[in-house]
Structure to design on (135 residues):
């Protein structure tokens, strides 16, 4: 079982099942929706996701007919997306999961659409906290 929540904690959830086909998506829609270089998403069974939204802050944006992106209306954190063509599956954002995730991403997708500033294989330094130059 996985547990997760949005940034403000209004939306909490449990996932009673696994995550399939997790990917790094570099498409322009995922970049815009995440505000970052890519989104890390994976499929879950709709019936496995148990939401607790006591303040009714979960809302959605319909990006195209039948495709909805669900997010917290208080903090703006994206939680999952749905597609009416696949009602038994949801695409969850792995970043909202607080538990250690067993599954690993299988691919980088839509790399021809990635930001021109994004380097997939660059050997950058890694830090436990902020970069040393940050005050």
């Amino acid at each position: 079982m996985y547990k997760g929540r949005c940034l403000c904690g209004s939306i909490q959830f449990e996932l009673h099942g696994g995550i399939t086909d997790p990917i790094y998506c570099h498409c322009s829609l995922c970049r815009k929706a995440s505000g970052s270089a890519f989104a890390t998403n994976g499929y879950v069974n709709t019936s496995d996701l148990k939401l607790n939204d006591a303040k009714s802050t979960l809302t959605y944006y319909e990006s195209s007919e039948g495709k909805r992106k669900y997010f917290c209306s208080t903090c703006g954190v994206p939680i999952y997306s749905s597609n009416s063509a696949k009602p038994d599956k949801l695409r969850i954002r792995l970043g909202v999961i607080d538990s250690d995730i067993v599954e690993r991403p299988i691919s980088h997708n839509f790399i021809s659409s990635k930001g021109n500033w994004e380097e997939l294989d660059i050997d950058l330094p890694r830090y436990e906290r902020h970069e040393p130059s940050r005050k």
